[in-house]
Amino acid sequence: MQTKFGLKTTATLVIAVVCSGVLPVPSEAQDGGAAQPIALDAISLPPGFQIEVYADGLQAARQMALADDGTVFVGSFGQFTGAPEIGNIYAVRDTDGDGAADEVMTILSGLTVPNGVAYRDGALFVAENNRITRYNNILADLQNPPDPVVLAEMPVNGINHSWKYLEFGPDSKLYVPVGGPCNICENDDPWATIMRMNADGSELEVYARGVRNSVGLAFDPGAGDLWFTDNGRDRLGDNLPSDELNRATARGQHFGFPYCHQGDVLDPEFGEGHSCSDYRPPVVKMGPHVAAIGMTFYRGDMFPSQYKDQIFVAQHGSWNRTTPLGYRVAVVRIQDGNSSGQEVFAQGFYDGTRVAGRPVDVLELADGSLLVSDDLQGVLYRISYAE
Q1: What is the DSSP string of 276-296?
Q2: Phi and psi (nearest 5°) for 361?
Q3: Do residues 194 and 175 touch, judged by C-beta distance below 8 A?
Q4: Mean pLDDT, rounded, for 164-187
Q5: Distance from C-alpha of 248 to C-alpha of 280, rounded to nearest angstrom
Q6: 339 found inside a domain
Q7: What is the 8-class DSSP label of residue 338?
Q8: Pick from 338, 339, 333, 286: which is nearest to 305 by CA?
Q9: What pLDDT is stored for residue 36 in this prediction?
Q10: Strand pairing class (265-266; 49-56)
Q11: How far apart are CA 346 and CA 343, in angstroms?
Q12: pLDDT tens readout for residues 61-95
């Protein structure tokens, strides 16, 4: 069943928005794999950890999803490569189990910003900027994928915050953010929300509101709550507002956009008459303009016990700050649904003068190692631990 904006209808839905314009494209991201090779010995990690290239040749690699047989599906960001027609989905395999991929296949191409991917019950789900699709029985023949089943049409405003991220929840529903169509504006549903639907596209509904631009979702392995990153607005200077790590405990909660930022800063244009106390504050302020995006709860046994059930977050890095922040992977310590903040886990993708890599997403493999996608280098890194 195909659903459009939560309505089981083929009628056109017109949504009135006030939009301040499309943001500039980050210059560091335009190459999507044409940057100078990164020196892995420049990446600093805690003692005992090591980083290696798991796979390369994945132009503008973005979200990753793990299949039952160990295949890693990878979305891409065609619009940022200078060749919008690329729009690839990759399948990556380590067939000999040596910790490095020996097969990298382009299984789909020509899609429109297919940033998001998810795998469930033998099917690959893909989030383009304008629709959510499903490819049934995808592993049967990766060289000849089936035709897509269109599950839902998504609203589009150019490429402005239109990159999507997919994650299945413990309720078996598929969650997908719909970013705000602007830097800062008032908007109606489904803009600036996180939506969810059944795996067949039915019952599409808004789950959370006031979410400016989330490109990272994960579910608490204990409580089952939805956690998500959110990128703060621009043009309030270098140090405001902070990007956020949020926790949604029930449907219908509002996280502030466009009225309140980082839980305690009213917007100078839209905040009048509002109170930050009316909205859900972030659990962690991730830092101004760090571009916190892909995230995961670590559930494996390879890493030391202090990392168990903690959150790893990829920080893509600033494009609009005098002194850039981000370009790293952070770990957020969580206990009883609360956190004292974040600490840097992997850094060195930016040396103060040159951007050498831009982490996008994090994915745990079956052996407990962690993959990190990099859309500037077009590679997947594997982080492992040995005493």
Answers
A1: GGGSPPPSEEEEET--EEEEE
A2: -140, 160
A3: yes
A4: 97
A5: 8
A6: yes
A7: B
A8: 333
A9: 82
A10: unpaired
A11: 9
A12: 999 999 999 999 999 986 444 555 569 999 999 99
For the beta carbon of residue 269, count every other beta carbon within 10 angstroms: 14
**Is residue 20 situated within a structural domain?**
no
Residue 350 has pLDDT above 80, yes or no: yes
- Cβ neighbours of residue 165 closer than 8 Å, sequence gap 6 or more: 63, 115, 116, 127, 176, 177, 214, 215, 216, 217, 293, 294
Tokens of 212: 């400016």
Residue 11 within a domain: no
- What's the domain count of the chain? 1
By residue range, what is the domain housing residue 220?
Answer: 31-385
Please tell me the predicted confidence (pLDDT) of residue 85. 56
Instruction: State pTM to two decimals.
Output: 0.91
CA atoms of 22 and 41, how far apart (whole Å): 37
Place of tokens 């956190």: 339
CATH of the domain at 43: 2.120.10.30
Residue 118: half-sphere exposure toward Cβ, Cα within 13 Å = 23
The C-alpha atoms of residue 362 and residue 300 are separated, in whole angstroms, by 13
Residue 52 lies in a domain: yes
